[in-house]
């Protein structure tokens, strides 16, 4: 794939961002809320986090763009199983980095493990989403 359709890339990145935003809000804000509350001294206060929301959103947009670009450039995905495998590998990579914070931060192992597992699930979801968006029979197909 030598050339990436910019319009399609933008749409895919936007879709990936929406997925990331909603997934992370549900995963961190709902599912892991209790673990974060039990380790409150480690984190910024709710008000401080709201002040940095622009940074969080910018990071999620960047990650959506990078994930999409890596999928298109190196994914070599031919079907849904391949998209999910690509996502799982990306999730393991990113989740492994998050798990690596455990020795340096006073957090429970359950939180570090949740980050790892959650990243794998998020990666699989992103891989599946991009595979749906880049199926050759789709109207926007360019490759």
Give your account of this protein's structure.
73% of the residues lie in helices and 0% in strands. The radius of gyration is 17 Å and the shape is globular. Helix 1 crosses helix 4 and helix 5 packs antiparallel against helix 6 (109-133). The protein has 143 residues and is an all-alpha fold. The chain has one domain (6-133).
Defining key terms:
143 residues, disordered C terminus, mainly alpha
In short:
By secondary structure, the protein is mainly α.
What is the topological layout?
Blueprint lengths: L5 H26 L1 H6 L7 H6 L1 H22 L5 H20 L9 H25 L10
Helix pairs in contact: 1-4, 1-6, 5-6
Task: Specify the biggest β-sheet.
Answer: none
By secondary-structure content and strand pairing, the structural class works out as mainly alpha
Give the overall average pLDDT: 92
**Tally of individual helices:** 6
* Secondary-structure element order, N to C: HHHHHH
- Percent helix: over 70%
Measure the end-to-end span. 7 Å
Overall 3D form: globular
Return Rg in Å.
17 Å
Q: Write down the domain tally.
A: 1
Q: Give me the count of strands.
A: 0
Please state roughly what percent of the residues sit in beta strands, choosing from under 5%, 5-15%, 15-25%, 25-35%, 35-45% or over 45%.
Answer: under 5%
Q: Extract low-pLDDT stretches.
A: 137-143
């Amino acid at each position: 794939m030598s050339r990436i359709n910019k319009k399609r890339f933008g749409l895919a990145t936007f879709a990936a961002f929406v997925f990331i935003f909603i997934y992370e809000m549900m995963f961190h804000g709902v599912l892991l809320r209790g673990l974060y509350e039990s380790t409150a001294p480690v984190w910024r206060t709710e008000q401080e986090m709201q002040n940095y929301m622009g940074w969080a959103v910018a990071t999620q947009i960047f990650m959506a763009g990078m994930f999409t670009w890596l999928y298109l450039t190196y994914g070599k995905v031919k079907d849904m199983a391949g998209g999910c495998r690509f996502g799982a590998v990306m999730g393991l990579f990113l989740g492994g980095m998050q798990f690596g914070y455990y020795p340096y931060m006073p957090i429970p192992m359950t939180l570090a493990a949740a980050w790892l597992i959650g990243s794998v699930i998020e990666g699989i979801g992103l891989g599946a989403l991009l595979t749906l968006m880049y199926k050759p029979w789709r109207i926007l197909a360019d490759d």
